[in-house]
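Internal ticket - ligand job 389, FNR:
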Amino acid sequence: ETPADMINIADFEEHARRTLSKKAWAYYFSASDDMFSKVFNHDVFAKVFFRPRIFRDVSKVDTSSSIFGVSTTLPIFVSPAALARLAHPDGEKAIARACGKQGILQMISNNASLKYPDITSAKISSEQPFAFQLYVQNERSRSVEQLKDVVATGCRAVVLTLDAPTPGKRELDERVGREEVRESGLADEDDDSEPLSASSGLGDKEAAGGGVGRALFQGTAGDLVWDDLLWLKSLLPVDMKIILKGLQSVEDVVLAAEQRDPKTGLKLVDGVIISNHGGRAIDGAPAPLMVLEELRLYAPQVFKQLEIYIDGGIQRGTDVVKALCLGATQVGIGRPALYALAGGFGESGVYRAIQILREEVETAMRLVGATSITQLGPHFVNTSQLDAI
Ligand code: FNR
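stdout (structure tokens):
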């Protein structure tokens, strides 16, 4: 199989299921508890219907977009996801090159399997944009050091993830972790039994039996509050944006929009990613599309105050177009980028996955009767089933 054999995003998942190590598959695929939120993140898109318009010249469509002032060729970014080297030795570098060639933004995880400067050094041009996702550490000085590296390497935004003060209960990941421990006999000899784990980036966090997710979260702060935003702001150059990730309620988006620096009066938050961590935080969290619709109905002012993005369950060009019609500026993909690395595909797999989404977005726009991203709006969708949830 080659990347060219993949015709939709689900094909990449199936390919990954067949080719990834058991541990990598368990870590990537898993979500919390009964996986209601993970499944619904995608299924909810079936509750939104288009209101297509006809007799329009759709021979040319323009999918260009922007995210916090950075121009991109598609309204899609790669969400931050840990440990890409579990899927391919080039890991996050392969994703960086594919994003560069496709002209979209990559958000690099705090828990990436390569160091931030090594990943960004794979960029295909000096202007290629990156954002860095931060998990503030209990030992704050660690985060301060990390941010120094990120700032020095040129980075457009810090994405502060807030939906995981503790990891959700990801049972597949946990189960495979326990099996590994049983099979290798001694927990701390575990490294030699898995060819990729030594280089996966887990480093000193490799812990026995709890699964990869739990090991990764060791040291992550669970005590952050709104006031900590000022601390974060003080560590960044003035032109670097702050994006909050993992908002799951109208109230928190409104609060994010209200945050200001008391000295300058300037806004502290430039954008928010409505996300439930791909169903990996609290099971039963609303699908991001539901929160987006609640915002549209109950707090429409926020769309003027902040850029709003969603991620979770995006698998189709029509998903992207529906989210944009409901007010999202861009949408993120998490697992699809990781799955696309698998089975030796690396950069070419991720490139192909983005290309598939590009073609699907273009087709959806043509069929709905829109020729540019700015034309997309609620007039193109029927949300009566979504509103009934
Ligand atoms: C994630 N996600 C995540 N988010 C984050 O802020 N920092 C991280 O390190 C990670 N790591 C991570 C690893 C894996 C394997 C997955 C699947 C997810 C969440 C990610 O950014 C995103 O919110 C979801 O993946 C979006 O859902 P989909 O696209 O996977 O359905």
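Auto-summary: The first strand starts at residue 49 and ends at 50. The longest helix spans residues 346-368.
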